[in-house]
Amino acid sequence: MGESTALLTDRYELTMLDAALRDGTAHRRCVFELFGRRLPGARRFGVVAGTGRLLSLLRDFRFGDDELRFLRDERVVDAATLAFLADYRFTGSVSGYREGELYFPGSPLLTIEGTFAEAVVLETLALSVLNHDSAVATAAARMSLAAGDRPLAEMGSRRAGESSAVAAARAAYIAGFGATSNLEAGRRWGIPTMGTAAHSWTLLHDTEEDAFRAQIAALGTGTTLLVDTYDIRTGVETAIRVAGTALGGVRIDSGDLPTVAAQVREQLDELGATGTRITVTSDLDEYAIAALAASPVDAYGVGTSVVTGSGTPTAGMVYKLVARQDSGGGWVGVAKASTDKGSKGGRKSAFRTLDAGTATSELIVVSDGFEELEAASSHPDARPLQVPLVIDGEVDAAHEGPDGVKAARAHHERAREELPVRALALSRSDPAIPTVYVDATPAG
Amino acid sequence: MGESTALLTDRYELTMLDAALRDGTAHRRCVFELFGRRLPGARRFGVVAGTGRLLSLLRDFRFGDDELRFLRDERVVDAATLAFLADYRFTGSVSGYREGELYFPGSPLLTIEGTFAEAVVLETLALSVLNHDSAVATAAARMSLAAGDRPLAEMGSRRAGESSAVAAARAAYIAGFGATSNLEAGRRWGIPTMGTAAHSWTLLHDTEEDAFRAQIAALGTGTTLLVDTYDIRTGVETAIRVAGTALGGVRIDSGDLPTVAAQVREQLDELGATGTRITVTSDLDEYAIAALAASPVDAYGVGTSVVTGSGTPTAGMVYKLVARQDSGGGWVGVAKASTDKGSKGGRKSAFRTLDAGTATSELIVVSDGFEELEAASSHPDARPLQVPLVIDGEVDAAHEGPDGVKAARAHHERAREELPVRALALSRSDPAIPTVYVDATPAG
């Protein structure tokens, strides 16, 4: 078991638990749903990420001595609630979208079923993980589409909180990036890592030539040399003089990249280094990558913009009670009345309808209760989007760890192939497919 | 000791270390500097945050068996480098701005002195922590200024990665927020926590009245009731009927807040609940808070915008080699040539010049070497901005833990009082004071 995650929680969840244990509503069975009312940044599709991480963090959602002592000392809850928390273990069930899946407004990304007491306390943890990771994955997928077949590496750790950086590397990889600079992401999730040298490497040496020679001595001529510490033209000339025409690559981290890339390619070719690759890494985002499509660039490194969701650092998802038992034990769908239309009561089943393999709608079948939902049977090409993640408190380990990441990345690649062409444009717009609600509540 | 932080590192730092151990430059003494070339979001001042966290993470920057095994298996470095890392412990010195201090373009927020080998590997960790925490603190300070004397609580955990959320709560508190919803921030850093109930609390119950009665039974009439689940007017009426006119407060989480706040205040007063406070929490940022200055609002809760830096989720600081020993043991200032003017070689000492207590400039004295810098003696009102944080590998514990947070918050409050009036405007502009460089390199 890892460090406790139980206090990664907003205080009001424990305050509600405390009050609900007093009035007995704590034991009402409930359905909470995690979803986004809209897509981050008015994009055409979203990408679900974080699910596998959340499941592991859920295993560690236990209140140990430190956590209980804090809650007692600060009088956050009373003695009966402390006793409940000491024994807390989520015994309910969670179903949801596969990690890497695409999503649209209203998609029920997670459905959490259990007592109010056990489900209400997971709100903050679930949202923190999915909001962050999905924001990164959604931005990363657009960059990956813009890069096409050219390799794309995530190198933004320094522009994100030190733990979020590891999660961001993971989310970017799921959404199509090929590697990360973050070593912990490599160790923890099996993601390929990359990186050779910074400007400090050149500055450390008495001359640029000394720096290049030392790097090649250590890493071989297949390495990538950073050529823009002083003058790029001189840097490229020195690089090839030192390494020979078999030099693996050069990296450019400044300047007007379309111009500079073309000049460097011409210079490399003139020097006979026709196989030396050009990597660019200066403040790239999906728009800059798209603008370089016709430039002689071989690989991209993206930092700030991918780890910060390219202008939308959080996916804005919410965690809402959508159905509960009433005092008589029957089920009722519930929703905040004064909300906009994206918040809909009732338990939901979700399907992606397809026409010849291309997505046509996000079909969401709504029910007040727990009966099996079969409305999608009228859509023979509808692909069910939800899978069991936790069953009666048992986490499905297939979603966790490096294997979970690999599966999520593969699933994302498949799901992306279903996108209609209009989903690939980078401009702000409406979702690529409409969300269609079908009411399955039995008459009477 | 906590979990190892050693792999929260970009791979190229270890690649450079590996090559530098081979060619001997690893042992050259170096000065690295952490600074921002510009202020996040074209604001008028920045707020330094994260320093105390970084010092604690630095204690845990050790390569254990897991980390070394990964580096060996992935062939990131060779055997000699693995041996170096197994014994790694930072033995250099760090000086820097106090946490909570204001900063401006070029301010040397951290100066790291040691061998290239021991200092180069700290780049990512130092930047991750300061870039995230300072972006949040800088946004938070503006919100705190806009809120004036009204209490301000941070409740954005759900919109940030689960670990960054704890750091964000801490940064916001240092920059003037009064409380957080994040329980772990309360436990770890001693920050006051707050929160009562969500919409799910009302939806859990058969009626809003049931929910209010249960909450009051648990938390007393001094609690704050969330009144906008259904109809706000009915909610307020029910709240006062159930709680009486001694009700502590009502919270509004939707609608056009200036209008709704005025209506609710009028209704509360008509009902005789003249002491019942109004808290608003719907998508606030510094501009919305400022726009509510004339509204009858008693407290603010801010979520997304503070934890995401209100449009600028990273402070964009960099970590650069600015001076090093040459092969003869002498010191040379170094800087990337092709950079914009914000990157300046040489070791720096920083002072804030004041005129009758108001800041007039950020004075940065530049030197190639290690001699004592006394140029500020010509400015009798200059306040030195750097303090020792790590001396010969020994971290000054005064900056860590809850005591460090308390000191940082107090220092921020004092530093803010020095700001000229033009610094308080919210619009995008130039820094409130200029950065002035003075060259102290001895002639010859």
Automatic annotation (TrEMBL), chains A, B:
One of its GO terms (molecular function) is glycosyltransferase activity. InterPro entries: Aldolase_TIM, NAPRTase_N, Nic_PRibTrfase-Fam, Nic_PRibTrfase_pncB, Nicotinate_pribotase-like_C. Gene3D superfamilies: Aldolase class I, nicotinate phosphoribosyltransferase. This is Nicotinate phosphoribosyltransferase. Transiently phosphorylated on a His residue during the reaction cycle. Phosphorylation strongly increases the affinity for substrates and increases the rate of nicotinate D-ribonucleotide production. Dephosphorylation regenerates the low-affinity form of the enzyme, leading to product release. It comes from Microbacterium helvum. Pathway: Cofactor biosynthesis; NAD(+) biosynthesis; nicotinate D-ribonucleotide from nicotinate: step 1/1. Its EC number is 6.3.4.21. It comes from the Bacteria. Catalyzes the first step in the biosynthesis of NAD from nicotinic acid, the ATP-dependent synthesis of beta-nicotinate D-ribonucleotide from nicotinate and 5-phospho-D-ribose 1-phosphate. Belongs to the NAPRTase family. It holds the Pfam family NAPRTase_N. It is an enzyme of class 6 (ligase). Residues 7-131 form the Nicotinate phosphoribosyltransferase N-terminal domain. It catalyses: 5-phospho-alpha-D-ribose 1-diphosphate + nicotinate + ATP + H2O = nicotinate beta-D-ribonucleotide + ADP + phosphate + diphosphate. Keywords: Glycosyltransferase, Ligase, Phosphoprotein, Pyridine nucleotide biosynthesis, Transferase.
